[in-house]
Design goal:
The protein is built from 5 helices and 6 strands. It is α/β, with parallel strands linked by helices and about 200 residues long. The protein has one domain: Rossmann fold (3-Layer(aba) Sandwich). Strands 1, 2, 3, 4, 5 and 6 form a 6-stranded mixed sheet that branches. Helix 1 crosses helix 5. The model has no long low-confidence stretch (mean pLDDT about 95). Pfam families: FMN_red (PF03358). This is NADPH-dependent FMN reductase-like domain-containing protein. GO terms for molecular function: oxidoreductase activity. It comes from Streptomyces griseus subsp. griseus (strain JCM 4626 / CBS 651.72 / NBRC 13350 / KCC S-0626 / ISP 5235).
Amino acid sequence: MRALALVCTLNSSPAPSSSQHLATQVMAEFARHDVQGEIVRVADHDVRPGTGVNMGDGDAWPALRKKVLAADILLIATPIWLGHPSSVCQRVLERLNAESSETDDQGRPHTYGKVAAVAVVGNEDGAHKVSADVFQGLNDVGFSLAPGAVTYWVGEAMHGSDYQDLDETPDAVASTTKALAANATHLARLLADSSYPAA
């Protein structure tokens, strides 16, 4: 089993990122289930706007798309900005939209049989709303969602604390991260053994 984490922070490397910090924790839990993984910070790549598989002229999405299609589990990690997923996350969803028309020889999108999960961080409420937005987009383009497919941390409203700056991971975040990894891995293994029917 392989997992890919697309970290949708607005900041390029090597700037610190709470989204990357939480994604790293999720990937560590995947490793406990013998799932190998890779973390990619999307802002480090020139992903062009659009809804095509390849927008040309140096577009970095085709290379990232290969990683998505090679993975059994896709994790989207995003901060909350103005109550919404980051603009980088939205761009990833828009590019994934092309998968709706890219099908295998049985008429199924290549994302069928793949599992998705979400990690959300922010200094305001809204993790449920953001995960719901991302869940809908991922499901629309063919990904499956296991129970408990999100882990999140939100700081106290009107404060400037960051998840990456906490002295220790809160128990609630640690337990939801463990559940996300266990359930997503379980579903991915089931789908690997028994694929969805042809369209």
